[in-house]
Amino acid sequence: MRALESDFAPAVKSLVETLGKGLVAVIVDRDVKTVSRWMSGDTPRDEEQCRVRDTLQICELLLSGDSPSVVRSWFLGMNPQLNDENPAEVLADGRARDVMAAARAYVNAS
User: Fold this and answer.
1) pTM over 0.85
2) SS (H, E, C) 42-53
3) Phi/psi of residue 79, each to 5°?
């Protein structure tokens, strides 16, 4: 999958194109300036890189069937698969597997 093979800066740029800097900042628990630095080539800690790559995989799955605006809304909305939490906050809590399961359920229901 492309998310696993991409360099870090392009991965962040791809996420920002779909989700926006503010939402990416929420997911990685950093500020918008930090996300901008990552887009310019700064390398974050391993945990942050993992969160970005996990989020990119989830985005790519969702983008296979929906537009970027729908995917962004999905990340912001309450999700019944996640006990009505929104996926962005669940990712910020480090629960990428839960969000991937919710994304798969969404894609399979579509």
Assistant:
1) yes
2) CCCCHHHHHHHH
3) -125, 120
